[in-house]
Amino acid sequence: MFIKNFLILFLLGAFLNISVAQSLVPGELVIQLKERVDSDQFFDNIYQNRTLSTELQEYKEVSSSLRLHLLKYEANRVNIDQLIQTLRQHTEIQLVGQNFRFELRDKDPNDLLFDQQWGLDVINAPEVWDCSTGGTTILGDTIVVANLEGCDIHHEDIQSNIWINHNEIPNDGIDNDGNSYIDDYFGYNVDTQNGSHDFNNQHGTQTAGIIGARGDNDVGISGVNWHIKVMVVSNNLQFDQIISSYQYVLDQRTLYNQTGGDKGAFVVATNASFGAPGFPEDNPFYGPWCNMYDLLGEQGVLSAGATTNSKVDIDDIGDMPTSCSSDFLIAVTDLDQSNDLRGGFSPTMVDLGAPGTTSQAISPFNGYVPITGTSAATPHVSGGIGLLYSMPCDAFAQLALDNPREAALKMKRYILDGAIDSPVPALEGKTLTGGVLNLESSMNHMQDDCGSPTGNLELLKIFPNPTGSTIGSLVTVEYQTPDNAKYDIRVFNTIGQLVYVDSVEPVKFEEKKFTLDISSWRAGVYTITIENISNIKSARFIVH
Question: Interior CA angle at 530 toward 528 and 531, to 5°?
């Protein structure tokens, strides 16, 4: 990151009317340079041109990956339309436009404070906690979810779950770990360009608490994860700083991938409880914004985005970021306790609903207040992604290291399939899945991929079949159960005599299979049953 102060004189021209005109930031422009343009040389050349008549104060890199830069000027001295027109004439510039500010996507609650976190039951978090409460993958990678807002990092109910960059020394003004960010010990503040945060940021503290307030500690509430690391990335909600926030996350996960976990962070999801109106084509900078989700996804990071709180079809009015078509973005709308839709919708762009309206949360300085809207719904999803990464599935955990892109796509599929299994009438035809976030169902789909299938009781496969009864002969039986209860196994010979009795009690994410030693069994047809008090299944195999 760099800043360079300079004065330049030139004229500008007309840009285009964008849908966030009411949120434009005076005195700030964003430009995207074309590929292979040397940014230092470009700005040095502009600095040498003193024949023009507008004063620029400084420029700053916003995203190296997207080649975006922020330019500041004296708003009261500049004709902005002329300035943009002149910049657009530069052959090295791809895009130019005014910087703009995002809107938070919460609503003031109009109900009494709830004593319970109703949303956690809706998404079946307690059922998943029976398997894991979050924290690390089965291979030991510390799971991180990035919340792109400031936060009271010293709140009693989240302090121990705040991500820390242990390769950095706080407040020494030095980039100790060489990751291009100074003092990013408690995450990063792209506005102040260090690791300090606004502890009084209520909205960001609330969303962070839904993701990862410490659970089972006799204090306050529980996040979707009892144990996780929440990466705090503060910004002022302007476009340039939002992109820089994503860039920070991208850099940290990329560094983690490149160094085998020695540096950076194993970020698996980002949370964006903010947005802006419009379609991607309404503003030339919306395209790079959408592209950022693809760049993050290539490194293994899914992004959860809040749609508008207005109950409107975003296919008609557009919404950012949820009108982005990235495969690595999950667009979330808001459901209340009655399963009524409270936010924007689209059968193609909005993926699922999640608990939002009046969700209990933490607030600055050890407070506890509810948050309402898609702002509350979205961290249930980003937090859920983090929780599922902690499931004891060796194959998926290894995939996340070997092919992080493919792991991210698989995780999105688990999330969406879980919602498909949980239809809500209010979401039918209004979201892609027609359902609500269901982490237990998502976990079950994940178990299926991990060789621990969940579903109606079945004997799936017996092999080899037929088989011979020689010394050391084994028959392997693969099965499926709807739960992890105890099941009895019985085998009968051709004349109905009971020749084998045992029981199995499957453990989540362990393979559901067992072997039978048939070395001493006589030739014939055998019947095997698997049963409990509610169900029984049988199959036959041949010994010769």
Answer: 140
Q: What is the pLDDT of residues 426-456, one digit of tens each?
A: 999 999 999 999 999 999 999 999 988 888 9
Identify residue 498 by its one-letter amino acid code: L
Residue 56 confidence (pLDDT): 66
Q: Partners of 252 in the beta sheet?
A: none
Query: Does residue 55 have a pLDDT over 80?
Result: no
Beta strands 362-363 and 367-368 are antiparallel
* 104-449 against 458-543: fold identical: no
Token pair in block for residue 238: 């302007």
The pTM (predicted TM-score) of the whole model is 0.84
Residue 534 backbone phi and psi in degrees, to 5: -110, -15
- Cα distances from 76 to residues 28, 189, 356, 496, in angstroms, run 12, 28, 42, 95
User: What is the distance between the alpha carbons of residues 257 and 281, in angstroms, rounded to a whole number?
Assistant: 33
Round to whole Å and give the CA distance between 279 and 271.
20
Give the pLDDT confidence of 237-275 residue by residue, as tens digits.
Answer: 999 999 999 999 999 999 999 999 999 999 999 999 999
pLDDT at 331: 98
For residue range 97-145, list pLDDT tens digits in order.
999 888 777 654 342 333 568 999 999 998 999 899 999 999 999 999 9
One-letter amino acid identity for 207? T
Q: Beta strands 362-363 and 329-335: pairing type?
A: unpaired
| CATH number, domain 104-449, options 3.40.1440.60, 3.90.1720.10, 3.40.50.200, 3.30.930.10 | 3.40.50.200
Residue 288 structure tokens: 């790079």
CATH architecture for segment(s) 458-543: Sandwich (2.60)
Q: Answer yes or no: is pLDDT of 1 > 60.
A: no
* Residue spans per domain, the chain: 3-100, 104-449, 458-543
Preceding amide of 423 cis, omega within 30: no
